[in-house]
Amino acid sequence: MKTDTPKGPRRSQYNKDENAIRQAKLIRRESSVFLRTIMVITIVIIGLALSFFVLADNQEFLEQHLGKDNPITKLFVNLSKDNDTKHKADFSFPFGAKRRNILLLGVDSNGEGTDPFEGTRTDTIILMNIDPRTKSLNAISIPRDSKVYLPGDHGVQKINAAHAIGGINMTIKTIEDTLGVKIDRYIIVHDQAVREIVDALGGVDIYVEKNMHYNDYSGKLFINLQKGNNHLSGKEVVGYLRFRHDPMGDIGRTQRQQWFLRGMMEALKKPETLAKLPEIINVAKKYIKTNMSFYELSQYAGLAKHLDMDKIEIAMLPGAPNKKGYISYWILDPEKTQEVVDRLIYREKVNPSEINANIKAGIMYSDGNAEEANLIKEQLSNLGIEVVCTGHVNKTHTQFIAHSKQVTNDYFNWLKKKTPSIIGYQFVYEPTDNYCNGTDFTVVIAGK
Known about the structure:
The chain has 448 residues and is of the alpha/beta class. Helices cover 40% and strands 23% of the residues.
């Protein structure tokens, strides 16, 4: 719908709104879906499932701290051995090798003393499809501002309001109705889990890339961090992750999630972490809610060891920002959204008759990467792939972005063998080409 551009005093506010919409679009495009997935999964695994890896080889520790006849001790000991007790057990799901859709939610806080899962909005919404048979994982990030219809008489709302209004049941119903999928299990993580798990670990080591100072008295957020190597407490980590008062905005915040995870994983590797696991599990019980049994969680942890990283595929529901008054929405593209769901959830295969041999590519690169971009262009051209455009972009994550159905993970894995320069690139499916017109995939070379 066409609207008239305001004139006079309102034009300044109009320009601000337009800039806000453009900035929102840039932030969403830059945000790494996979990093957000890892953030949620890591917190859950720390509390419940990752304990399988750590405890499976420590029968003596389990018997000493939990008791020889404790059900948890028996579970871990049995899971760690196969029938001949000589090798680690593989995963064996009680429901068989059936694909499952698991909804991962990260919820905010309503303040001290409130129920962590009542009336809270969902900051992170990720739908995962896990296939035990192929040892593969697909993940779809659902923008929290997505404009949807809520069940009942609640009308049009942002999708993150579903949990605040009707809890997990309304959230599941909304997503199932919107995407036409069936959700089998869910995991909800409260943001307080990060603070308490870090404190339980005794803090984490993180390199802070710049001085960070910010005081929000109404929100009770106080950040005072110095550039350099730091050993951060849970409270300091929350400030580090929430800091966004720099030109990078939410993009820099996403990068800091990655650096935090590195510090977290290093802390988990320390031998003394074993003694802290009971406290970590208590935090998980308080701030993580799921309809999965402990046995199911341990089995998914077992599967995590076997996941084929070359088969991981991620995407964000495609759409565009739209502002109505003071409310900003993410308007889903119905056709492109269906393509994402068909590919990542239903795992539809490309019909051989639809495959076009004339693959076209685009290459986007940030400062300092022109030489690498030219090398990749030469390698692709030698394979008969037409590079229709190259350009400069300010990106923080190196990616291989597929735009057409025929650019599958199998194709990407074949291409990596022929083009070693793209080994290690994150595979993303994004049916809308925001870089060049008419390309089948885009190679994005991020800043160093």
